[in-house]
Amino acid sequence: MALYSEKVMDHFTHPRNVGIIENADGVGEIGNAKCGDIMKMYLKVEDNVITDVKFETFGCGSAIATSSMATEMIKGKSIDEALKLTNKAVAEALDGLPAHKMHCSVLAEEAIKAAVKDYYDRNGIAYDKSQFPDEDCPHCHE
Ligand code: FES
After folding, report:
1. Residue 135 dihedral angles phi and psi, to the nearest 5°
2. Helix axes 6-13 and 61-74, enclosed angle (nearest 10)
3. Which of 76, 131, 137, 139 has the lowest CB atom count within 10 Å?
4. Does residue 76 carry a pLDDT above 70?
5. CA torsion angle for 64, 70, 76, 77 (degrees, to 10)?
6. CA dist list (Å): 135 to 15, 31, 107
7. Contact between 108 and 115 (Cβ < 8 Å)
C-alpha cells in the first residue's frame, strides 16, 4: 500500500486556499513543537460564518495536505462548526495519514482555533478559554 492516499497527494500537489487575506478578520499562527514547522491561517468572517480562509505554511507535505483539506472543510461554515473540526476528522477526510505524520495535522486544527481566538479578541467577543490551546504550550494536550 502506498504510504500516502491519493487525496493526500492531490491536496499536497494542488493545495487549495494557499495565500494570505489582506484585512483578515482573524489571523492565527502556530508552531509545531514536534518538528518546528509553522502555519499561519487567515479568516474572513461575516455574520459568524467563515466566508474565506487562506493559509501559509512552512511545513511538510502532510501539513500542506491537511491544511488544504481543513480550509475546504470550514469554508462557508459557522465559527462554531469550524471550532469542532478535529485533526482526526481532517485526516479521515484525506483517507488517512501515516501514524508518524498525524502530528502534522494538528497544525491546521490549532491554527484555525488561533485565528478564531484572534477574531474573538479583536471584536471583544467573550469565549470559553478552554476551547483553545494553551498559548504557552499548544501541544501539551495532544
Ligand atoms: Fe512538521 Fe509535518 S513534519 S508539520
Report:
1. -60, -30
2. 90
3. 137
4. yes
5. -160
6. 27, 10, 13
7. no
Instruction: For a ligand 1 pocket test, name from 35, 94, 97 the mutation site with the most ligand atoms within 8 angstroms of its C-beta.
Output: 35
Grid cell listed for 61: 507535505
Burial class (CB in 10 A: 0-12, 13-18, 19+), 23: exposed
CB 42 within 8 A of CB 20: yes
**Secondary structure class of 57 (helix, strand, coil):** strand
Q: Which three cell numbers stand for residue 78?
A: 459557522
- Least Cα distance to 112 among 23, 45, 61 occurs for 45
Which of 52-61, 95-104, 121-130, 132-141 is predicted with the least confidence, judged by mean pLDDT? 132-141
Rounded Cα–Cα distance for residues 118 and 25 (Å)? 8
- Centroid of ligand 1 to alpha carbon of 17 (angstroms): 19
Query: Ligand 1: does its nearest atom lie under 6 Å from the Cβ of 110?
Result: no
Indicate the pTM of the whole model: 0.90
